[in-house]
Amino acid sequence: MAWVLLTVAGLLEVVWATAMKSSNGFSVFWPSVLTVVAMLASFGLLSIAMKSLPLGTSYMVWVGIGAIGAFIAGIILHGEALNLSRITAAALIVAGMGLMKISA
Fold it and tell me: Could you cite one Gene Ontology molecular function of this protein (predicted)?
């Protein structure tokens, strides 16, 4: 169950990071509200998952899901660049997350 909570927490990190971008520096109301709500939910679920998962593993997987998700959201929603070096960096993050999960 902790892994499910951690995964949802990571997905909520993608939500709040994407909403924060859309909030235009917290000057647009609804994206700002979504940012704060998703952030609180993400941190809350992360803290529950950390009760039974190692700190380093939990945090690394949470950040990794958020980073990869934000990378994909940036490409799809904001037209950010997709090139070999960015894909390689993302692949290395995924590889690190996999290795960290295997070693937990």
Answer: transmembrane transporter activity
* Per-residue tens of pLDDT for the chain, all 104 residues: 999 999 999 999 999 999 999 999 999 999 999 999 999 999 999 999 999 999 998 999 999 999 999 999 999 999 999 999 999 999 999 998 888 878 86
Which stretches of 28-83 are DSSP H helices?
29-49, 55-78
* Residue 78 to residues 56, 65, 83, 90, Cα–Cα distance (Å): 31, 19, 15, 17
Are 75 and 82 in contact by the 8 Å Cβ rule? The answer is yes
At a CB cut-off of 8 Å and minimum separation 6, what does 16 contact? 34, 35, 36, 38, 39, 42
Number of separate domains in the chain:
1
Does residue 53 come out as left (phi exceeding 0), alpha (psi in the -120 to 50 range) or beta? beta
